[in-house]
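ugh ok fine here u go
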Amino acid sequence: MEINMLQHKKILEEKIPKIKKTLSIVKFLISRRESKSDKPIITKFKLNDTLYAKVKVENTGTIFLWLGANIMLKYTLEEARELLASKLAAALRLLTNAEEDLEFLRDQITTMEVSILLKRRKYKRDWLSGDEEQTACGC
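structure:
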């Protein structure tokens, strides 16, 4: 259970910076559109780990967002900003919940370990004192 929670937390910690980066790009495109700049943006697009292509990005007012599971959708810049902001808020909330749940789980594990240790100690003490009748029935 702890391993699953740690994996969930790790996935969220990897996802949040990607969402923030995408949101900042969308905000940049919105600011470019609001400044009424018709000049295209010339940038490099990553095709592979070591391969980049030089591209011109025209101001179209729309953006394609990769949603995962081989799904890409076209959004207006405002819709994309709203979607990414809500996804970021949800991911941050889930990360906070995961951290709280993980801390609670760790506290419960510690409590259980202490309880088991005390029961073992009591059983050993009863066994060493020769009180076999009490240890046999567990009373």
